[in-house]
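Exam review. A common question shows you a sequence with its structure tokens and asks you to describe the fold in words. Practice with the pair below. Do the first one on your own.
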Amino acid sequence: MIHFETEFSLGRSRWDYTLWKVVIGIICGVAIFFGIHKLWGKADKPLVVVDTPSQIEEIRQIRELEVAHFDCEELYEFKREGRIYDDELTKVYYAKLKIGIDLSEVKESDIEKDGKTIKVTLPEVRLLNEGKILDFSRTFSQSGDVDNTFRRDAAKAAEEWIVRKYITSEVMENARRSVVSYVENYLRSIGYEEIKIVFVDYM
């Protein structure tokens, strides 16, 4: 009798243990199913366009977007007629030209949005450091009465000639393409798919 009761007790324990494993297995299976379903659900969800005023402010804070840069060195000769003799000045001018746009000028009204479609009107590409392109200069030679007025007029003329030489229509068109590429890449990174970029003077 003792032997029989022991066998019966052990048999009941094995049955309880097996039943417990089945219950745990079912629970784990359900948990795994919902976990996988949740992951698939996340993968199937479309990319949501995060549309907040902070994005516009983030664009503005970039301020000057420089897409082209020239470091140049130019030698110019100047002459000014005098009563007895002419005043002459020969100088080397070192200049830096920065081309791009000022994104701080973008207004909320310049941005039109419809779902994942966006149209942005940008300020025209321009010389960002206009009036301040001359870095420094070096006098090569001079004769006569070369006063401060003569030097100032010479620097102004040199700046105009340098801008005319380097800021060509081809340079500006390449700069526009670079700006469009930069802005498009940024807008795609935050979820927009259909993007149209125009400039104020080219609408």
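Now try the second one, then compare your answer with the model answer below.
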Amino acid sequence: MAQAFAIQHLASTLVAWTRIARQDIEVISPQEAWAASCSGDLRLIDIRTLAEMRDMGIPEGAMALDMRAPDFVARIEGLLAEAPDVPLAFISAVSGRTTWLVRRLRKAGFTNVLNVVEGIFGSPDGPGWIARGLPMASPPARADLPA
């Protein structure tokens, strides 16, 4: 009984901490990201590894850009320079990496960046891109991303 309570308390604390940690960044739901991406009001960027992308595909319309790529920041700067008024919305598996990334980008002076909460597979914030029935596409065939 005490162990079950401790586990439940730890889980609820983790959920609360995750929500608090996201308070300093702008977030967007998967449905909002999909709609805005379709209308050209934002650019959706999948930052998972190429191996992850190959396993499940990527959100339809997303740009595949592994956040470990050596030119990642330069490519983000290029995208923002091309269309400074078009926000970049980052998506990862469960929104953990994107929470971290968007926070770091904002601290570095990038303001037009968003975190797609829930991620692709779901998180404490909700069921995620796939469970919401949003479309997935084949992963990129290019091998220019780290495996």
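Model answer, second protein: Confidence is low (pLDDT under 50) at residues 9-21, 143-147. Strands lie at 27-28, 43-46, 58-59, 63-64, 88-91, 113-116, 136-137. Full marks require stating both points clearly.
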